[in-house]
Specification:
Blueprint (H helix, E strand, L loop, with lengths): L2 H5 L8 E5 L3 H12 L3 E5 L11 E3 L5 E3 L5 E2 L4 H9 L5 E3 L3 E5 L5 E5 L10 H6 L5 H8 L2 H6 L2 H6 L5 H7 L4 H16 L8 H13 L6 E4 L3 H15 L3 E3 L4 E6 L5 E6 L4 E2 L3 E4 L3 H7 L2 H4 L2 H4 L9 E8 L9 E3 L7 E4 H4 L1 H6 L10 E6 L10 H15 L9 E9 L24 E3 L12 H23 L3
Parallel strand pairs: 1-2, 1-14, 2-10, 7-16, 14-20
Antiparallel strand pairs: 3-4, 5-9, 6-9, 7-8, 11-12, 12-13, 15-18, 15-19, 16-17, 17-18
Helix pairs in contact: 2-11, 2-18, 8-10
The chain binds flavin-adenine dinucleotide.
The site of flavin-adenine dinucleotide (FAD) has 41 residues, from helix 2, helix 12, strand 15 and helix 18.
């Protein structure tokens, strides 16, 4: 029997796909597959869906988020998906400006204009007074490889950390510490001395080439209500089955080393015609059987690891900033944050406060988090609060924290360390009835909301192609 004949459904109904993992990658794949007439069963370990973008209400009814999520203008597939769901208008686009808040209330910003790229960055270069002309000029010559580097050049830069690349090009050290440090920490929660140069070049190159790529948007409220919830509803309404509380233990193999089923921790076995994992990489490593890892396609996945990160949310008794946008901070442990009291109408409306009485509701990415994970919530909140006091010396001393929440993600996005990019697998695997989705798989946007959606849709398309090939007898 060939692998293809082995894949033909024997039950006479539509082909059944079992998807492990209910984050954006798994949900995006499920949607594409139900749209194409497949019978889909999605297994999620937690009681809630959405994975790293999940959100839930606490006992007071306030939304708690796994992480601060912003949308970039460069994204494509997540917007297609949201348009299909009719939810694209839930993204609120903010002014195309990056504001950096520093110790002792110091500030600098980069604003862009509606000019063709890279001229759109001109105001950012000329209006910024924090960096001197000499400092800015050191960045100037590095723009050439960022803008015009070939794919081969970019791939080679994966052998270096961003810090090495920065120093090799003679770019000013102050720019590394004040501008690029919060950028790499907000991108992948890794400092410049650990992150691959390729990631920063990919992102910076996209921002330079596409005028609106670095523009940022926020959901008008919680991801559950405006992103993952509508996606789950769509899947279920169109015949998909979503099961929470299903902790996948392992993938089962038949004698040809095709996948024959999924075993859950409680002993249940779930079977289908095709299987897809949309798990974080550290979880995939655990559920892959060792026989599969004999093939380097799967064995190399053990080289990946997740980056720790912490999210802190703080409710204050007054407003400490009126900036309706993302904020960066190079000094301390809060590289990127936002005041939802300004950015996210559902949240300030939740507080039933009129505009004049609005209160800050700050959400912070805390990174690098490796040495902070073991601290108590109180200690983490106290350290973040010290940072806030320093960034807002005029308004913060009068403010009081009325409530706070700390969410630790010990292994979040995959670590984009030098040398790892070449091991990112395709969504199609050497096992004909098995497909991979997740930010670590090959696509342009790494581990991000766009990367997850793109990987899920690619995995679904690869499955469709296999299925059609099989139906055509290829
Ligand atoms: C703090 C933070 C901030 C972020 N900010 C941004 C941002 O601003 N912009 C952006 O684009 N991206 C951001 N990201 C990245 C983005 O959230 C992720 O890249 C994306 O959500 C990953 O989706 P995924 O489906 O690939 O993985 P996940 O979301 O990790 O989904 C995997 C799912 O598998 C489930 N699972 C795990 N093990 C099992 C098992 N054994 N059995 C069954 N199910 C299992 C998990 O519970 C989870 O639901 C951020 C991430 C974090 C952590």
């Amino acid at each position: 029997m060939t692998a293809a004949t082995a894949l033909k459904p024997t039950h006479g109904g539509p082909s059944r796909v079992v998807i492990c993992g209910g984050g954006l990658a798994g949900l995006a794949a499920a949607k594409t597959l139900v749209d194409n007439g497949f019978e889909v069963e999605l297994l999620e370990q937690r009681p809630i869906l959405g994975g790293k973008v999940s959100s839930w209400r606490d006992k007071d009814g306030d939304w708690i988020e796994t992480g601060l999520h912003v949308f970039f203008g460069a994204y494509v597939e997540i917007y297609e998906l949201m348009r299909e769901l009719g939810t694209y208008n839930r993204i609120l686009w903010k002014e195309h400006k990056l504001t950096y808040t520093l110790d002792k209330g110091e500030r600098f910003s980069f604003r862009t204009t509606k000019l063709p790229s890279p001229l759109h960055l001109m105001p950012a270069v000329f209006e910024n007074k924090y960096f001197g002309l000499g400092e800015k000029l050191t960045l100037g010559k590095s723009l050439f490889p960022m803008l015009f580097g070939s794919e081969k050049y970019y791939a080679e830069q994966d052998n270096y950390t961003y810090q090495e690349w920065h120093q090799r090009w003679g770019i000013n050290e102050k720019m590394l510490k004040k501008m690029f440090l919060p950028m790499t920490l907000s991108l992948k929660f890794m400092p410049p001395e650990e992150i691959s140069a390729k990631v920063v070049l990919d992102v910076a190159g996209t921002f330079l080439r596409e005028p609106d790529a670095s523009k940022m948007g926020f959901l008008k409220g919680s991801p559950q209500e405006h992103l993952t919830g509508p996606l789950c509803d769509y899947i279920v309404k169109n015949g998909g089955k979503i099961r929470t509380g299903c902790n996948v233990k392992t993938l089962l193999l038949d004698e040809r080393k095709n996948i024959s089923g999924i075993e859950l921790m409680d002993g249940e076995r779930v079977t289908g015609d095709y299987y897809m994992t949309a798990l974080p990489i550290h979880k995939l490593q655990r559920v892959l059987p060792s026989e599969l890892k004999e093939n380097p396609f799967f064995g190399d996945l053990d080289k990946f690891e997740g980056v720790p990160v912490i999210t802190v949310q703080m409710w204050l008794d007054r407003q400490v900033t009126f900036i309706d946008n993302i904020l960066f901070c190079p000094d301390g442990i809060i590289p990127v944050y936002a005041d939802f009291g300004n950015t996210t109408p559902d949240y300030f409306l939740d507080q039933k406060a009129e505009m004049a009485q609005r209160r800050s509701r700050l959400e912070f990415v805390v990174a690098p988090a490796k040495n902070l994970m073991h601290l108590s919530d109180e200690e983490i909140v106290a350290r973040v609060w010290d940072n806030v006091q320093s960034c807002f010396p005029n308004s913060a001393p009068k403010a009081k924290i009325t409530k706070s929440a700390v969410v630790r993600v010990p292994q979040s996005v995959f670590a984009t360390k030098p040398g790892i990019d070449k091991y990112r697998p395709t969504q199609k695997t050497p096992v004909p009835n098995f497909f991979l989705a997740g930010g670590y798989t090959q696509q342009r946007f790494y581990d991000s909301m766009e990367g997850a959606v793109s990987s899920g849709r690619r995995a679904a398309r690869a499955l469709l192609e296999t299925h059609r090939g099989q139906a055509a007898g290829r």
